[in-house]
Design goal:
Helices cover 32% and strands 36% of the residues. With 205 residues, the protein is an alpha+beta fold. Strands 1, 2, 3, 4, 5, 6, 7 and 8 form an eight-stranded antiparallel beta sheet that branches.
Length: 205
Amino acid sequence: MYIPEYHRVEDRAVMLDFMRANPFAILISTVDGSPYATHAPLLVDDAGEQIIVRGHIAKANPHWKSSSGQESLVIFHGPHAYISPSLYENRESVPTWNYGAIHVYGEVEWFSDHARLSETLHGLINAFESSYMEQWASLRDEYRTRMLNHIVGFEIKSRRIEAKFKLSQQRTKTEQTRVIESLSKSEDSIVSGTAELMRREGLGH
């Protein structure tokens, strides 16, 4: 990913917070010699020197047939918004787009044993709807086994992470404030979320 230095993010805590706040990511691998993408909610674990992402897909999805050990890419994409040049002080300006994105590269390991699948499912349930855990546990063993038989889990231990927040960092404080105020007025949470991301990064006032 092309990242000018003033858009590069290197703070590990910031990256982890962003990925966990935007867990519906895109997994990209090579299947039968061509790029193949799957959208899936993911768990993000801090494992010391590495960040580990985990999830599962339908067994009917041919993505898992890519060989384990192949380098894959996971894209976490966050809020984004069009930025009008009318918000800048200099009339000789052009439109642009503000956004946050993180790319995680690493070898993908696929697995189908029920113990690991159950651990991954429990993690996802706890992350997104912990109250469902009681219902899941109460389901018939036959039903849960059938559900597990229809999915394949995966894990990627990060080899490289690229994080980019393009948030008007190169503009003046006055212009940044105008951008934040303009985006904050939007009823679209993706647009107003871009303003919030700018605020968290200390831009504007």
